[in-house]
Amino acid sequence: MIRLQGIGKDFGNFSAVKELSLEIPEGQTCVMVGPSGCGKTTTMRIINRLIEPTRGTVYINGEDFKKEKVENLRRNIGYVIQEVGLFPHRTIAENIATTPRLTGWEEEKIKQRVDELLELVELDPGENRDKFPRQLSGGQRQRVGLARAMAADPPVMLMDEPFAAVDPITREHLQNMFLRLQRRMKKTIVFVTHDINEAIKMGDQIAILQEGELIQCDTPEELLARPRNKFVADFIGVDRAIKILDLFSAGEVVGTRAPVLKMENFQEQVEQLQQKGKNNIPVIVESGSGEKFWFNLEELKDRVSLEEIIRPLPITLEPTSSIKVALARMLEHNNEAVLVQGEGEEPGLLTLGWVRHYVHRICSTTPGEEEGI
Ligand SMILES: Nc1ncnc2c1ncn2[C@@H]1O[C@H](COP(=O)(O)OP(=O)(O)OP(=O)(O)O)[C@@H](O)[C@H]1O
Ligand SMILES: [Mg+2]
Q1: What percentage of residues in the chain have a pLDDT greater than 70?
Q2: Atom from ligand 1 closest to the CA of residue 209
Q3: What is the pTM of this model?
Q4: Are both 91 and 224 inside the same structural domain?
């Protein structure tokens, strides 16, 4: 666990970080975002004791970081610095081996660890270990920077724009790779980015900084639902309702399964459902020959025949798909619903109306709106 307690840094008369307090629980990722010059790198450098704070202190696992020897502290913190910063005259293997060597590991153990890390960041060890940084692409160098920071398996990682300066596809690949690793490693991470989408994807919590001050620190869901002020709302963008779509899975939004009615006596079953207070819910109707169609329960009320409103079942999505994917598939197929069904599960129907209702409920009554955002 990392706790920043009122830390600040002045350079002459200028306060790069004014007074910042923040707590990052063990195994979680806190993403710091904010405009250029708002103090993100300065905060990272304070945590790693590359610079001394003018005010405040940092607690790592409850211990004041000043009580620890700087070398020990740094060994427990992997630092991916902005612009990668590999040593140009050292090979990839030597770069990655930096901390293990300082720590005095045996050569054989170092060699094994280097190869293991190269595999972990998806670089072929045989092909890459003896190369120099200039012989790699930007994205490959960023992977080496990450491997170097992870080399001695530190419990804490500071990652300063680790995936910047690569194309969007490589960036997404690196993000996914790191998320997979983090699920296993459960490190405590401070991650800096300029990209709010990256922050939403990578962060358990997001800290928004402006001119050396913390403006809001919340989970991505909370931040998108309730931006504290206009600065945060502007930073997130006007499309926050669309960004929210990425955060919820179709499975969790569908909630209940769709009732399946038999076509022969559908009216009786419609009445039963309505007596139970169900009205505007999607239902599936199965014909005698096993064909399935979907309707809104309301449409079936007092109907004798279904023929003129018949709608075949829409495409099926995994419950883990995001509601953004669900919406995209509805638009693509000119349909108002998708079927959500995991293996061996009863089907659920996610409708356009329900997505609209769900997102609106999350976005509504925010303090931002009251302020006229
Ligand atoms: N050693 C220094 N001496 C004087 N001013 C500094 C020093 N280091 C940083 N600053 C100033 O402190 C402010 C914060 O810098 P910092 O590097 O923390 O910004 P940042 O949020 O990381 O920005 P970016 O997104 O561009 O990386 C900037 O205005 C910078 O010019
Ligand atoms: Mg910076």
Answers
A1: 97
A2: 21
A3: 0.80
A4: yes
Q: Is residue 7 part of a domain?
A: yes
Question: Can you give the pLDDT at residue 329?
Answer: 93
Spatial distance between the Cα atoms of 168 and 60, rounded to a whole number of angstroms: 34
The DSSP H or E segment spanning 205 is strand 205-210
> What amino acid is encoded at 164 in this protein?
A
Tell me which ligand sits closest to the C-alpha of residue 11: 1
For ligand 1, atom 3, which residue shows the shortest CA distance? 11
Query: Which residue matches tokens 């079942």?
Result: 313
- Strands of the sheet with 77-80, listed across from one edge: 77-80, 156-160, 188-192, 29-33, 205-210, 213-218
Whole-number Cα distances in Å, 254 to 61, 193, 281, 286, 335? 40, 33, 11, 20, 17
pLDDT tens readout for residues 347-358: 889 989 889 988
Ligand in closest contact with the CA of 50: 1
Within a domain: 243? no
| pLDDT number for residue 82 | 73
All residues with CB under 5 Å from ion ligand 2: 40-41, 82
CATH code of the domain in which 318 resides: 3.10.580.10
Number of structural domains (the chain) is 2
Residues of the domain holding 348: 250-360
Ligand with an atom nearest the CA of residue 43: 1
Q: Which of 4, 31, 38, 192 is the pocket-test mutation for ligand 1 (most atoms within 8 Å of CB)?
A: 38
Q: Is position 203 within any domain?
A: yes
- Residue nearest to ligand 1 atom 2, measured at CA: 11
Q: What is the mean pLDDT of residues 56-73?
A: 88
| Per-residue tokens: 195 | 């990209």
